Amino acid sequence: MQMALLSLDINFAILLAIPFAVSLIVTAAVTAALIPYLKRINSTQEIYDFAPEGHKVKSGTPTMGGLAILCGITAGCFAAMIPMGFSPTLIVILAMTLVFGGIGMLDDLKKITKRQNLGLKARHKLILQIVLALAFAIYFVLLADKGTFIILPFVWKAVNIGPWMYPYIVFIVVAMANAVNLTDGLDGLAAGTTFGVSIFFPVFAILGFMLALVKNDTLVVENISQSVAFSMVFPAFAGACIGFMFFNRYPAKIFMGDTGSLALGGGIAVGAICSQMELLLPIVGFIFVLEALSVILQVGSYKLRNGKRIFKMAPLHHHYELSGWREKKVVTVFVSITFVLCVIVVSVIIAQGLKLGEF
Question: Cα–chain-centroid distance for residue 224?
């Protein structure tokens, strides 16, 4: 049994390396080509009027670099299917990533055309995202026949939530897409935190799969085992983030824009749901949760407490900037927190597996 698991782990690692490497190379190459082109067509970022003073110098930096990220993820996903075979669900995950990126691109184009930092109306973006997430939920439950089971992390029991699966999926996808979008406010922050989550997620999938097999009956086992293959999308995300960070780290030569942030957030959520490890997202993606929560609390406080604010500025990364932290320090701390949380989760899962004698 242990030799079989070792062989599985080695093969799994090789499979992960392929989409990661392809995505990294393609993203880096396309980004390098995009920068002069975007400058030439004046596709540049307009900085929000109320942004911290230090951000004013970033005005004129090319945006819509998310196009390169989408190219890298696409190449990585197709590369993953060369050794493991065609996967309709992997194609659906990719399609959802591209469509969410398309919503972001419409938003970016409107900002560029108007020469201001206001794109699509918030309610229009939200409606589009909800419709797309609902379409995916219908596919996941009915067309792909994945059922209405969710896996409880650290307990590893499958729970059937029935029709609640539809709003459950919609909430996770829309919340994650917007959380990553809000995190994209400092050079390398969204790409760095997304890389941390993505590089560890296949590990969560394979280890969680092994423990879920122990805890559940045969009716659920087949769906759980299929979910491992879908985690191949995550090394494509990770490779794209690293390839883009070559040019997006401080001082950024290009921004991903909503084209990249909505694609990464929506794609990660869909991939996590297909891998049946989506309930780990609030833990390993804690920075995304904090960023979104800081905006909700700030807006709520402003409206309910006669203009009083909780933070100096929201999202949270701007609060720390205005508190005296340098931009690079905020990014380093936030990305480091993400990696620490991922390591803790992996350690806990491994400890559980050793206790049960499965690893």
Answer: 21
Catalogue the long-range contacts made by 155-158 (C-beta closer than 8 Å, 24 or more residues apart): 155/215, 156/208, 156/211, 156/212, 156/214, 156/215, 156/216, 156/352, 157/215, 157/216, 158/212, 158/215, 158/216, 158/220, 158/224
pTM of the complete model: 0.92
CA dist., res. 183 & res. 247, Å (int): 18
pLDDT digits (tens, 9 = 90+) for 313-336: 999 999 999 999 999 999 999 999
